[in-house]
Structures are given as C-alpha cells and as structure tokens.
Design a protein that fits this description.
Length: about 800
C-alpha cells in the first residue's frame, strides 16, 4: 500500500508541475537555512562534554554591590573552600596572567603564548589528558610549565620537550614538565601553556608597594584575575557549595574587609557555554544563550512558513481532486486511507526538497563559517552520523506537518459532496475568513515584523558608530606594544612626520575593556568601585578630551601614580564633590590608605560602547611603563602612507613581531560585532521568510486566476480593460496585504522598542522605518500579484473561453 501511495504522490507532483516546483523550492529554501542552523546549534552546544565529572564541576563567580557580575574571584577563595569546608573534593585556580607573552627557547626561537597559572589539581577537576609528564605532580614545583601538543610541536617539532626550558618574558624561565593532548571536544578553557601557580608568590614579592592591587596570592581585593573551579564530593549539590560561599562572604563582611559586600555564586561547567548571561572577564568562545534561542525560533519560523505554503496550495488544489477523493470514498476508502495518501505526498515532497536543501546549505555553511563572529569559535559545520539522522527526522517532520492540514480537510469530505465538485463551496471555504487567508496574512505579518526589527537594528548600529563619543576618534591609531618598552617605541614613532601626538593608556576606551579603581570618599568609609585608566600626561590632549575644570597631569617620571586623579563629571556628582570647580583639590582615598587629590575634571565621554550609560570614571597618572597601550594621532591624509611609514619604523625596533595597529573607528566597529552579526543574520532570515511568503502568494494568485479563466474572458468580451481586470483579480490579495500591514506595524513597533531597551542610548522607531518596511513589503507583494494578474488580463479572451 505504501508503495502505491508513493507512486501516486509522484504522479500528482508530475501532473501539477508548477505548484510542485513552488512547493519544493519554498520547502528547500526554508530547510536549507534550517540545516545550517541545526549545525550551528549542535556546534555551540558541544562545549566541555568530554570532562568525566562535568556534572560535579562548578565555577565560582562573583557579584559586586552594584550588581555587576564577573567570572573571576579572589585567588585565596579556592584554598579557603578546600581547607574550611567539606563540600569540595578538589578545587583549582586559573590565573589569567599569560596573554600573548613572548616565550623563547634555549635556541632563541620566540613565539607568543597564552595560558594560565594553575595547579596540578587542574588534571583532576577537568578531563584534559597528558600526552607526556606525570599528572600527579606535573605543576607542583615553581617555574614548571605544561605545553599544549600544538604549541610543543611548534616549538620543538618531533623532539621530546620534557626537560627543555622556555623564557616567558618578564615572568621567568620555566622548565617543561608535561604536554597536554589535544582535547577530544570543544572547551571554553583554551590555552597554549599552563604554568605552576607555585611561581606566583615570588612574582608577587617583586611588585612595588604601589602595585599592591596587582598582587594575586593572599589578596582578597584582586578579584579580576583568577578563575576558581570546584569538583564537588559525591552527594554534594550546588546548594551546598553556595551555602559555603555565603559563609565565606559573611566572614569577610564581619571582618570589615574591603570586599565585604561581594557575593559569590556557582555555575555548573555545562552551563558556561553557551553563555546564559554575559559576565565580565568571561572565558570561552561561545555564543550567548539568547542567540541560541533566537536561532531555534528562526528554525521554527523557517519550517512553518513553507509548510503553510504547501498546505495553502494543497487546499487550493483540493477542487481539482474532489472527484478523485469522492470516487475513492465511494468504493470503500476510509478517512485514514485518504489521510495517509495526502501525508505521503507531503513527505515525498519534503524529502525531495531536503535533497535540494542539502545542496543549497553547503554555500550557506561557508558563508556562516566565514562571517560568524570569531569569538564564538564556530569550528564544525560538517554533518556527522547523528546529524544525518536528525536531518532525516527533520524532513519527515516537515512532510507530516505540511500535509497534516490538507489531509485533515480532504479526509472529512463526504462522498456525495465530493462528487458534486464543490459547486456549493462546501469544501474549501466554510466561512468568510478561511485558512488560506489566515496563512497568507500570518506569513506577511511575521515577515514585516522581522523587517521592522531588522531596520531598527541597522539604524541603531549606524547611530552608535556615528555618535559623538566625547573624544576625537578620527585618525587615531591603537598600537600593540607586544612586550616592547613604551618609552622607546613612543620616542621613535613621534619622529614620523605623519604622527601629531603619542600617548599611553592601560585601557582602550569605547570598547568592553574595563579596569576598576577602588576609591573611598572618606578613609574608613565605604569603597566605591569606579571605572578608570592609568594614563600619561599626553593622553587628554591626544584623545581630544576637554577639561572643564582644573588642569592636566604634569610630566613627573619620579612621582607615584596615586598622587592625583582626573575625574569625569559623573564622578564629581557621584562622590558629591560639589561643582566642577569646587571638586579641584578635594581629597579621595585609594585602597583606604593613600590620599589622592582631584587635579582636574573632564567633560563626560563614552568610555564604553553605547549599550551602557556614562558612569563615574577616574584617570590615574602613571609614569611607569607596565601594561601600557599606545595611541598615535596621525595627520589627516592618506592613511596607507602613514601605516607603511610606521611599519618601517617598527621593523627597525622589533624584527620578531609584526606591526599591529588598528584605527579607533575600526576597533569601535568590532566592539559592535555582536550587533552587526545578529543584524546580518536577522536580515538574511527576514529576506528568506519574505521570499517564502512571496512564493506562497504566487501559488495562491496563480491558482485563483486559473480558476477564473472563464470569468476573465467574459469580462474582457463585455468591454473591461486590462487594467480593470488586473485590479479585479488583485484586489482580494491586496486587501490581505493591507491587513497584514495593519497587524504587523504596531507589533513590529512594540518589539523594536523592546529590542532598543538593550541600549542605554538609542534611536526612536520613527515613521521612516515603519513606512519604509511596509512599502518594501507591499512593493514585493504587488510585483508578485501583478505579474500573474497582468498576464491573465492581457490574454486573448477567445482562447480563454475556448479552453473552458
């Protein structure tokens, strides 16, 4: 029986070639995007599955008094949990102090490496395996180092690296004690090397007194550098761990510690990637969880749209098949037999479309893999064994979903009504609204809503990139020093005729990079975490920041960095220092022990991207050279000539590292990379949804006109013009489009405003966005309707009547 159903399905597809082509093309377009989205979701949900105890591993995060959440915590927390509580079987700290550090072998080969300082317990908590070395003590000794397999091969080729040494610039000489095998799956913990945490005390001891905040070991105030992971004992739960963390926080509060209002909370290893919410100092390269849910929503939309089209056209064709169904029922076919026949046709059509979708999704995979944000590490868009099964099940589900409505409608036919050929309109429409109209209105409404949201997103992005940030972002270069001394590089670069200014900073503004400045209004009072940066005396004039009170830092290489502060206007208001002029000379406290004087006040500027409002910000004068980033102000003109000239100067100073410089405007665009990608992907899905809706409209218009051939011929013989006939044929569908616009515009306006709530500074959803989106939809709809209606109106009425 199934074989006969399949043969009948192919015959019906061949008999109605045009409608079959529309159905297959519509299904294939939607399914091709769905296949790619399924692979993206599978890839992003595959993080950290290879750890044997993943269900018992938790990362400890912290929340500051202002609600700001971070993935990092103080270094002593791990030891406290292990010593004072029984909840942890093992704990491990990862200190992010190795970032693009020059590592040099004994043979003077230099490569840049990134990684963490950690303990041997790393290999007990996680599922990383050693290819060489003893996992029981590989990182016990100070200045011991473990390399990833890839980095070991880059340094030493096929030579055994155990016992070799690497000189990590400004950190010491480390002995290689192990090699980590390539992990069998994706992980949010990416590293080239792991250095022993036992090396940290000596490095902390070498810090200057004024650099106390940068100390790692024993420093509860530095909660910006260390990640702590805990392997729970069997039987212990997340609640047990968080109870222990609450006790730790309570003890710090009773001790009146500077970080007394910080709270700690646990996050399971499996919930870190994709990111449920964005924490500061986050590790990993996955997409945020809301993005995954968005993709799932698009899968549903792109599945339902072509299925609705199929149902719509199948119901439209029901008139031509009523006698067939009547005869089948008259000779004994049951309702279930009719349902199985129609469902089989839907499944056959879906599997043909699935084959075409497979071909179409391959270039789409390439596009997504090329333009997907690099920070998400989209590494695998190739279908594997389980993916093929998912695709087959997906095709079956689409076929059943597409065929369900027409199968249900056709199965309900009474044989006598079916044999009358629907003359009384009892088959297709039982009311004035009808499923076909609802489907068309729904599709175009949803398409227009997507278009309004997409147009709003791009308008907001344009607003953010062109906005006045309060400093001169044009012709400003950010140069990566890559371990070179800032003073030497600045002196050489300043000699270039294209350079009009050079300055140093610890933070690149108008990005997501932040540094905290612990400031007390009064000694012994409450600490107020303020964002800030360490800068030199050239920073304000080079950046074009405007002083509204006081004066700039004076050059003084012998001073300590904590003598003076320059605040923004928000900070003056926040610390209740009076007017801007009154704030000059007021004393604040750093670390509750060092008095600092307010030297100047700058006009408020956007030091973060426009997702966030302007908050208090403090500049600290630091003549030291540690952790600096260089900005170069270049003269207007040909930037290519300036870059080539600066590259030549760099090569004379540093023959090892390439010259890396980025224009500030380019950096700001990258900071909005998540918005750009979401906008691009949403635009693609909106156009795809609209295209599928237009295919459905084309099918409905074609069938509607095909059923009115005799009416068209009579109207033209009676004197109706082609324009009158076209309008008559199109008016029904134009009304449906107008209804779709009336529904979609207020809904789109509402959703667009919800989206804009994500940004502290935003545009208004104006008439141009709403009217422009509606006009574009109506334009496409008119073309789709007009082509078929015009052809029918221009046809020879004699031929039309003869065919009848």
């Amino acid at each position: 029986m199934l074989k006969n159903y399949i043969l009948l399905a192919f015959r019906n597809l061949a008999k109605h070639r045009f409608f079959s082509l529309l159905n297959i093309l519509g299904l294939a377009l939607g399914m091709s995007a769905c296949l790619t989205v399924i692979l993206i979701i599978r890839d992003q949900l595959s993080f950290d599955h290879f750890h044997p105890n993943a269900a018992r591993v938790f990362r400890v995060n912290c929340q500051q008094p202002d609600g700001f959440k971070m993935a990092t915590v103080p270094f002593p927390l791990a030891e406290t949990l292990s010593k004072d509580f029984s909840v942890a079987e093992e704990s491990v700290s990862l200190v992010r102090s190795i970032y693009n550090v020059d590592a040099t072998t004994a043979e003077n080969q230099t490569l840049q490496v990134g990684g963490f300082f950690t303990e041997t317990s790393f290999f007990k908590v996680f599922g990383f395996q050693l290819e060489a070395g003893n996992a029981a003590n590989v990182l016990d000794e100070p200045n011991s180092l473990v390399l990833s397999k890839n980095m070991a091969e880059r340094f030493f080729g096929n030579k055994n690296p155990i016992g070799e040494t690497l000189d990590l610039k400004n950190k010491g000489i480390f002995k290689i004690t192990g090699v980590v095998a390539t992990p069998p799956g994706k992980t949010h913990l990416e590293f080239d090397c792991l250095a022993s945490a036992a090396s940290l005390p000596a490095m902390d001891a070498a810090l200057k007194p004024e650099e106390y905040q940068e100390k790692i070991t024993g420093n509860w105030e530095n909660r910006y550098m260390t990640y702590v992971y805990v392997l729970l004992r069997p039987g212990q739960t997340k609640s047990d761990l968080e109870n222990a963390l609450a006790v730790v926080a309570e003890k710090r509060e009773k001790a009146n510690a500077p970080e007394k209002n910080v709270r700690f909370f646990a996050q399971n290893l499996g919930n870190i990637s994709p990111k449920p919410e964005q924490y500061a100092n986050e590790l990993g390269a996955s997409a945020p969880m809301f993005f995954i849910w968005g993709l799932i929503a698009f899968v549903l939309i792109l599945t339902i749209f072509p299925c609705l089209n199929y149902s719509n056209m199948a119901i439209s064709q029901a008139l031509a098949r009523t006698r067939e169904m009547g005869v089948r029922k008259a000779i004994g076919a049951q309702n279930s037999d009719v349902k199985r026949l129609i469902l089989t046709e839907g499944v056959v059509t879906a599997f043909i479309a699935l084959g075409l979708a497979w071909v179409l999704h391959l270039p789409l995979n390439h596009f997504v893999g090329t333009f997907f944000p690099p920070q998400t590490k989209l590494t695998n868009l190739h279908a594997e064994g389980l993916d093929w099964l998912i695709f087959i099940v997906f095709g079956l589900a689409v076929g059943l979903l597409a065929g369900w409505i027409p199968a249900r409608r056709m199965a309900k036919l009474h044989p006598a009504i079916a044999l009358r050929g629907n003359k009384s309109g009892e088959i297709l429409e039982k009311n004035k609204i009808g499923w076909r109209k609802i489907m068309l209105v729904g599709q175009f409404s949803l398409s227009l809503i997507l278009m309004i949201v997409v147009a709003t997103l791009w308008s907001q992005l344009q607003f953010m990139t062109l906005a006045d940030y309060g400093f001169q972002k044009e012709n400003l270069l950010t140069v990566e020093l890559q371990g070179n001394k800032p003073g030497i590089v600045a002196a050489e670069m300043a000699q270039d005729p294209h350079v009009t200014g050079v300055c140093m900073t610890s933070v690149v503004v108008a990005s997501n990079n932040l540094q905290g400045v612990p400031i007390f209004r009064e000694r012994g009072g409450e600490k107020i975490d303020t964002h800030g940066a360490m800068v030199d005396e050239n920073y304000l004039p080079v950046m074009g920041l405007k002083l509204v009170a006081g004066e700039n830092f004076a050059k003084n290489p012998l001073s300590t960095r904590d003598q003076f502060l320059i605040l923004n206007e928000k900070a003056v208001e926040h610390f209740q220092l009076g007017s801007r002029a009154e704030a000059i000379g007021k004393v604040l406290w750093m670390n509750d022990s060092t008095p600092v004087s307010v030297r100047g006040v700058v006009r408020d500027f956007h030091y973060r991207i426009l997702d966030h409002a302007i908050e208090p910000f403090a500049f600290r004068y630091s003549p030291t050279e540690k952790g600096y980033i260089m900005h170069l102000r270049i003269a207007p003109g040909n930037p290519s000539l300036a870059m080539a000239s600066l590259g030549s100067i760099w090569k004379k100073m540093d023959a090892v590292h390439p010259f890396k410089a980025t224009f500030m405007e380019e950096s700001m665009q990258k900071a909005y990379g998540h918005v750009t990608f979401v906008g691009g992907l949403a635009s693609f899905f909106a156009l795809l949804a609209l295209s599928i809706a237009c295919l459905g409209l084309l099918g409905s218009v074609t069938y509607s006109i095909g059923s009115k051939v005799k009416e068209i011929g009579i109207r033209k013989i009676l004197g109706a013009s082609a324009a009158q006939v076209t309008l008559k044929l199109a008016q029904h569908f134009l009304i449906l489009l107008a209804v779709a616009v009336a529904i979609a515009v207020p809904v789109g306006y509402f959703l667009a405003n919800i989206f804009l709530e994500l940004f502290a500074y935003r545009i208004a959803v104006g008439g141009l966005i709403l009217a422009g989106s509606a006009a574009f939809l109506l334009f496409l709809g008119l073309i789709t309707i007009g082509v078929q209606a015009g052809r029918a109106a221009l046809a020879n009425p004699v031929e039309a009547l003869r065919s009848e």
